Amino acid sequence: MKKLIALFAVSALASTAATAGVALSGAASVSYDDNGSAASATSYDADITLVGTAGATTFTYSMDVDQASPQTSAADMATTIGPVTVAADMHQVDESNLNDGDGDAKADTDDTGVTISLDAPIGDATIGLDNSGNVTVSGTWSGVTVSHTSKKAGDTTTASAAIAGMDVSVTNKAGATTWSMGTTVSGVDLTLASSKKITAAFGLTGNTMTVTHNPAVATATSTATTFSVSAVKAYSTVAISRDLTSGAALSATYSSLDDSLTLKASVAF
């Protein structure tokens, strides 16, 4: 009997050790959209994420489970070997390839790959190399974070900094520059982007209202790799969200684009 008890104790200890580095999380929601003058619709979403950690290695696996046949949505592994970090994206995303006016790619692109980063002793710089041959140099100097990626399709440079209470980010991609600025005024979080999109968030955590102005989208013709983009007029949204004592969150979003109201109940763990 003592041997059986000892064997059970060892078995239980081994089981506990095997699961100590595993974290499970998930989220689920149900939404009702009256769709303005169109027919109303109800939609669902449920996701599960499993993260396993062993020493300096982490594996993350996510599934979309709100369908008859659950599908993988992410599979990533990262490990650190001295000054070298290796990250592998092992999941090929099934992208939308519909000619529905929002500029979808005509064919899926392979977004799997491996990135190797070296924390090189060049000041505060980090050098990275991925399997496509792209080289990235990034670091923070005098409070300004700069990242530059050299690639065949055109270099990308991003700079961000917090200056006098304002968060500023500027990106130049293949010669085209975009920027965004964010600040807080009298408790209101304001964000302005070069696309002319403006967002204002009011309230405290767990009880917020967010007002967003979305700029008009111009028509764009199709290219060799992407479908055309249909014009969309400018519109605004108002979203009110509140955490409930039940552990769930309830939100209501109004959109002036189609005069629709969406009610959403969600939970995350």
Architecture overview:
It is a single chain. About 5% of the residues lie in helices and about 55% in strands. The chain has one helix at about 1-20, and strands spanning about 20-35, 40-55, 55-65, 70-80, 85-90, 115-120, 125-130, 135-140, 145-150, 155-165, 165-175, 175-185, 190-195, 200-205, 205-215, 235-245, 250-255, 260-269. A hairpin with a 5-residue loop joins strand 16 (about 235-245) and strand 17. The protein is globular. Mean pLDDT is about 90; it is low at about 1-15.
Radius of gyration: 24 Å
Give the overall silhouette: globular
Q: What kind of sheet is the major sheet?
A: 18 strands, antiparallel, barrel
Could you list the spans in which at least 5 consecutive residues all have pLDDT below 50? 1-17
Mean pLDDT: 89
Q: What's the total number of strands? A: 18
Helix/strand-derived class?
mainly beta
The string of secondary-structure elements, in order, is: HEEEEEEEEEEEEEEEEEE
Q: What proportion of the residues form beta strands (DSSP E)? A: over 45%
Total of helices: 1
What's the end-to-end separation, in Å?
Answer: 41 Å
Helix content: under 10%
